[in-house]
Amino acid sequence: QVQLQESGPGLVKASQTLSLTCTVSGGSVAGGSYFWTWIRQSAGKGLEWIGRMFLSGDGNYNPSLLSRVTISVDTSKNQVSLELKSVTAADTAIYYCARESVALTALDLWGQGIRVSVSS
Amino acid sequence: DIQMTQSPSSVSASVGDRVTITCRASQGISTWLAWYQQKPGKAPTLLIYDASTLHTGVPSRFGGSGSGTDFTLTISSLQPEDFAIYYCQQFSSFPATFGPGTKVDV
Question: CB neighbours of A41 closer than 8 A, spacing ≥ 6?
């Protein structure tokens, strides 16, 4: 059974870079046809799609975050990473890693989420 | 961006009730729509994709319909474990936006 687990710092200082990792267990990031996706959830903005990346490097980002975000897939570590630069308080949220099935065109597997706060 | 709206924002219901939630897209999205359920402190889970296809393992009391701009999620007979927040998400264009959610409570 494939599982996703987010990890990283729960507190990031404003203007710095938020770096999160999603570890895939019970399966391979290189197996199947999936986009690896990051979503965040905050009280103010609800669920916000950050972006997705395919193994080939083909991906898409939310235009509102495009200048600050990078998603990468590491097959050697079986991980998916998120980097968000120059964070502000508005980036405080629960961050989820999820898998988008190409066959379903839906997010069929989610990690439990990690709460990240941005401090001034 | 395609804006997704949901109505109602919350609904009070009892076990056994039929519950209907509406999701509307600001422009046509064909059937590129998914529904998710989220319980407190948990990540969302997929219920329906392609507007009306039930995801594996989802009880048959859940149903989805619609195409274009108007979509519906129906719970035919509400069960205790169905009290949660329900979200729609469109995949017609990026960013893949979510609706604001509908809370189903007692």
Answer: A47, A48, A93, A94, A96, A113
